[in-house]
Known about the structure:
The complex is a heterodimer of chains A (333) and B (279). Chain A has helices at residues 54-62, 84-90, 111-121, 127-140, 157-169, 187-204, 215-221, 239-244, 249-257, 319-323, and strands spanning 5-14, 28-38, 43-47, 69-74, 77-78, 94-97, 175-179, 207-211, 224-229, 232-238, 306-309, 312-314. Chain A has 333 residues and is of the alpha/beta class. The longest helix of chain A has 18 residues, at 187-204. Chain B has 279 residues and is mostly helical. Chain B has a single domain (79-275), classed as MetI-like fold, CATH 1.10.3720.10. In chain B, helix 3 (67-102) packs antiparallel against helix 4 (106-119) and helix 5 runs antiparallel to helix 6. The radius of gyration of chain B is 22 Å and the shape is elongated. Chain B starts with a helix and ends in a 9-residue tail after the last helix. Classes of the chains: A alpha/beta (333), B mainly alpha (279). Chains A and B meet through helix 2 and helix 3 of A and helix 7 and helix 8 of B.
Amino acid sequence: MTPLLELDDIHVHLGGRKRWFQPDIPPVKAVGGVTLTVAAGEILGLVGESGCGKTTLGRTVLGLQRETRGSIRLRGKTVSGARPRDARKLRRAIQYVHQDPGAALDPWWSIGHSLEEGLVITGHGERSRRREIIEQALAAVGLDPTAQRRYPHEFSGGQLRRIGLARILMLDPDIVILDEPTSGLDMSVQATVLNLLLEIRARRDLTYLFISHDLSVVRRLCDRVAVMYLGRIVELAPAASLFERALHPYAQALLAAAPRLEPGESRTIAIRGEPPSAARLPAGCLFAGRCPYAEPACRTEEQVLQAVAPGHEVACRRWREIAAGAPPTAAAA
Amino acid sequence: MLILKKFAQDKSAVIGFAIVVAVVFIAVFGPWLAPYPQDATMSHLTRRLRPPSWAFPFGTDNLGRDILSRVILGARGALKVSLLVVGASMAIGVPLGLAAGYSRGWLSEAIMRVTDVFLALPQLILALALAQLMGPSLESAMIALVATYWPFFTRIVYAETRRLRASLFVDALEGLGASPTRIVFLHILPNAASPIIVRATIGLGFTILVAATLGFLGMGATPPDPDWGLAISQSRTFLPGAWWYATFPGLAILVTVLGFNLLGDGLRDIMDPRLRRSR
């Protein structure tokens, strides 16, 4: 069976410019060689620190950002290599929910008007039919039809997320990219939004690409998790085994940094230093400069994902030793 | 309705609005309101330079014409010039600003650099040069005003478009697959409308002032047009004796420009989408 979505060695370079008489501005390598498959019906989490390229990867999958290299296949059909507008036509089955769905609505347009627009753009039949679809979508996210007459600023954050969700549900997607769907919401609202997401997925047979840095949410929701660092996936594993036994030093540090409820164990190992600039990447393993297990060889050998168990891949040459409990090497420079 | 309520609380905006409505009313119905409508062209040398009286509330000028009638009749010309100039400036400036703001790269750069060049032209000096070239007339003054006023619209629309283009809702629309035409005309233009309207309102007053200046310098309207600026220019030789001759056309300019400016400022304050309510 072909996977729903396949990414093959995706590179995305942003900006960069040739200049006259001055040194060229190098592009930022936001995503550098991501290979990933998404199976139908799963929830794949994409985690990593701010600026690691998870949103860029999401936008590239969506088609708003053109990939520099690599190919994307949707149900076995190649959909990459097109200009953003054509790419969006090819990838109607993929939709994106913004981090802040309130700001993603035109403030001058009423909700009903904004929702209808998506249908108009995708060419959905006559007006009465559109009305029906909108009301169904609003009902599906638990809002009543009167919401249509109101304006974005009249809704709360949780309601806006529902509207954002309704907006793309109407378009009948197969894959939904959720960018930080819970950021900025308080705990109780978070829970209702997450439950809604799960409920809708079950009802509509959706596949989620879940971009987040909230690890507790990822743990609860995702089937598989990809940990990104500087535009690459450093570890890809089923959620259970990742949270049980992360192998990559970066993934370990990321998990260790998450706040926990158990008392006493509050001391976390902070990662030293800053990540290198994505415009000037170092040679070898990108994490070597901050890695407590780094060896001289780490700084010369580029790391690629290797399978350690079925479904569990890690991009670290020392994973065996780390798994066996090797002590950290001397302080990394 | 929240907008109306908010507007009604802003006293200076209401005053501005009232003045503008009055000026428009006078401009439209001028020939019927003026006590001596024939004084637009006819002169009566027997009643030269009469001071204000019941018969001639604003006095008469050096050709014996009723100044009140000429001030009333001048409103239409002033308003016509400013509407044409601002309308033409918007017709040129707004599309260019949208194009420059939405596109990237050379097109945007080219439009904005040309705009900068026009922005650098001093308005009055260009108007004087054109008047020399084409002969002094209202048309040459209007061409000069349009040539120097459109860049203001381009700049404003460009800045707004840039800001809106980077906003999340435009991004979301692109994500839905909306066409650039749809995004620009249905989303960016309405969201950029408030600064455009404010600028246009203030521009109407400003243009009346500059047109009057040109009339004063003899580069705009030509006699015997009942132009306010021209009247002040002609009155100079009769100052300070015939004070009413310069005062009333001058007051007409002052009040009209003030009205447009107050209205423009008031509009700026209420142009906020958050005042839009469903109920």
